[in-house]
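Marked as duplicate of an earlier ticket. Keeping the data here for the record.
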Amino acid sequence: MTIKRDVCFRRRCVLILLTVVCLMGFVSTNSHAATYYMPDDFSNLQAAFARMSGGDTLVIRSGTYTGSSNAITNNVRPPRGSAGSYTTIRAEVDGGVIFDGQNVRDMFSVSTGTTSYTNQYWKFEGIEWKNTPGSNMTLCGAAYVKFMRCGFSQDNADGSGANAYVRYSQYVLFEECYAYGGKRYKFQFAAGSDSAPTRYNIVRRCVARLDNVHATDNIGGFIFYSSRNCEAQNCIVIDSNMSSDWSYSLHQGSFGVPATMGQSTNHYFRGNIALNNHFGGFFTASNDVTSATYINNICWDTGAYNNGNGSRPNWFRGGGYAGSRKELYNFTFGMCSGDGSPGVRAEGNEIAILKNSIITHFTMSQAVGDIATQNYNAYYANNYNANTGNKDITNVDILATSLRYLPRIEDGSPLKGSGENGADIGANVLKRIGVSGTLYGEPGYNETTNIDLWPFPSEDLIRSKMRAYNYNVNGVQISGKRGFCADNQTLTKYIWEYLGNPIPPEIYGSRVDVTPPASPTGIDVQVN
């Protein structure tokens, strides 16, 4: 009996021990998935980050947050997550959370090194950072960081830094984000070091507009600066047309690849649009090796101006460096203006290709120049084409039947299927490129999906933000209520109707009222 009772006792102990171990494992597994609210649980970011663990989520109620306790810095930053469990900081309502530096402090400035990467595994959603003396957002020395539906803006004419600035970093994603107002660059991926190059980064379905800026250096939109292997997918630079109040004449373009601090190579531009801008379309500098591939992009009504003086609108420079390569396929170039140089120029490259593209209504002395390989392109209504392709089309009025809408080539038009290997001539920007949320190199990160791009995602939020911009100092007034932000417009409607034809009914589908809210939703102010 004694032996039997001892055996039973030991069995019960084993069962209890196993139960405790299982419970401990359950608690350990789920302890990294806590969700907190601000200001309910924490009055500011500093208090929140001190208590949060990696993989937690912080939901922030709508409001404008100020002060050093709400600034993300080297000392006050989210805990590091993991590949399977990102630390998430998100707005309860997209666009409803603003971190305002009041032009006295930077509200997001993290630099963890210049020679190596720190895997952060952070995700930010629906938040806007604005009004800072430096860049609105600075991220250096980081890897695995996602910004989803976030904004970056400057209310005044400050021309220092960028709205969003990334350096010495890799695997950073901006998706459906927006940048506007001051600052000389909108999204800038800057030069890194040999051991921590700026590389493997993506901007996807983001919108940029430069409003008023008094810069002392170059200005531009999406900039891959002496970096490597970056992608711009379905991004838009639009209505940056207030050049009469800009104070600097050197432009890096709506989409630029400068190379003044080392090579800038292996970049891809897929399905992007530059529309109604005064700082040029697509540009590469040539102080070192540059290489980029452009597929299905649109550059329309875009030149490079400063107080009315023109410059080159699309200049793909190679500078004579071995390895410099520019490949342009299915571009739609139109209504570009500038000085006497070619409107699309690719001098000094080891490889320069222009195929299956539209070049029309150029006002400069010649349409193209210095492009070694060009064919299957369509030219019309230019001062002088300077083309050399034996398969080029020069006798088709492109705006009559082929290009009724900027984002597509019409079925049955002379340019449909007339390109190399049966491709269309001109750009088709109709589907979303890149599976949502994917980082560079992940499955589907650069594929053309079957999801319609139009109506453009988050367009009501982006319009409401940019529409609210207003600059008025010493009699200079720039209103955000222009272009696609004007009354009775949407981003989609504005782009599709830019050539004067009513938007096709299928674009909005069953959505009857395409008029967006006239102003942003009011939010409470929370100051800490």
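See parent ticket for discussion. The radius of gyration is 26 Å.
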